[in-house]
Amino acid sequence: MKALLIRDLRLAMRAGGGFGLGLAFFLIVTVLVPFSVGPDSALLSTIAAGILWLGALLACLLSLDRILALDWEDGTLDLLACAPLPMEGTVSIKALAHWLTTGLPLILAAPLFALLLSLPSAGYIPLILSLLLGTPALSVIGTFGAALTVGIKRGGLLLSLLVLPLYVPTLIFGSEVARRGADGLSYSTPLIMLAGITLGTIALLPFASAAVLRVNIR
Amino acid sequence: MHLNVQDLSVARGGIAVLEGLSFTVNPGQALILRGPNGIGKTTLLRSLAGLQPALNGEINAPNESIAYAAHSDGIKHVLTVRENLEFWADVFGTNDIAPALNAFELEPLANRPAGALSAGQKRRLGLARLLVTARPIWILDEPTVSLDIHAVEMFANAIRAHLVGGGIALIATHIDLGLEADILDITSFKAKPVAMKDDAMEGFL
């Protein structure tokens, strides 16, 4: 399992691995928002938390079809299915690798981008906290979507449509944490809900992903 | 340890392609599958490898004993030959890739990105993967595609060494590998076409 994780990270870092894709998209969104809504910093600081969460979510969505599609195309997925790894473990590792290469860089970059959107200073810690708790759910749900659509040529659109509704609860509670934090309100309730969603998806979805993947490689 | 198949039927896309297939392969033996295109060789091999369920019948092989090599080799183009092999060695819990590199004369290429290899060299890398799995039963689907005469000889030697070590090989191929192996022509096991029933749609709904 460790070998698979190391290989996935290595593939992401090498040329064409798409490591910077999500990060670049996140940067583009946050840089362009002040241009499109105007340089009114009061308005920007009101919407900053929501924009940052939306940007992170869409950046995540962008790289989902890479999770399994490449391994499907070159036959690696068939060979992994014969390997002494449980399919549940394989999809969990895939989700973890996706989070490490997409979610984690977004979290690390978020404070910098928050500055561009003049997020109130009280909002930084809740923003980081909510992204830290919320983005793993995005990767795990995304891996489930990728497993559902693997083998479909140009399945990216279908994948986005399938995954988007599943992302909504994470987005609602995640941005609620960040927004309440920025307004100086208590944010423990949505934070607990967010943690619940993430832990629930991590516990349950790998089994669903493995099951649909087994059906799809037939 | 045997590979034993009893009255096996396999299907592709929900339609039976082969039925009533029975054979046994003992340790140290190879079985070569023959048959025209589309007869169901790949479907049979994928069923044996556990990638798809059989319609009927039994496949008896020890757990986690099968290494499968398909048409596509599962090679990552941005990793080097060595990194590709080391990955599979790690996955299968072995750690010595030198014999595999040696058997397919891959040492001079070990530090090249796999994307820079020719089709035949990629195939050699794909076959070298079998050696690092350390699994006793090899299931090979047209392993000699794009190999030159010398590489086919290398492959045949690897198979011989595997059989001498008590391994089993099941090979679907159209060419003569020069192995002393039983040949099974699966054409006669072709499934009879099932007449579509009128209530098929009703059953579906």
Description of the molecule:
- The complex is a heterodimer of chains A (218) and B (205).
- Chain A is an all-alpha fold.
- Chain A has one domain (39-216).
- In chain A, 82% of the residues lie in helices and 0% in strands.
- Chain A has helices spanning 2-13, 21-37, 41-62, 66-73, 76-82, 87-116, 124-149, 156-182, 188-216.
- In chain A, helix 1 crosses helix 6 and helix 2 runs antiparallel to helix 3 (41-62).
- The mean pLDDT of chain A is 90.
- With 205 residues, chain B is of the alpha/beta class.
- Chain B has one domain (28-55, 63-184): Rossmann fold (3-Layer(aba) Sandwich).
- Helix content of chain B is 30%, strand content 24%.
- Chain B has six helices and eight strands.
- Chain B has helices at residues 41-48, 81-91, 98-103, 119-133, 149-164, 200-204; strands at residues 3-12, 15-25, 30-34, 56-60, 66-69, 137-141, 168-172, 182-185.
- Chain B has a five-stranded parallel sheet, with helices on both faces. A three-stranded antiparallel sheet of chain B has the order 2-1-4, covered by helices on one side.
- Chain B is globular.
- Chain B starts with a strand and ends with a helix.
- Chains A and B meet through helix 1 and helix 5 of A and strand 5 and helix 2 of B.
- Chain A: It holds the Pfam family CcmB.
- Chain A: One of its GO terms (molecular function) is heme transmembrane transporter activity.
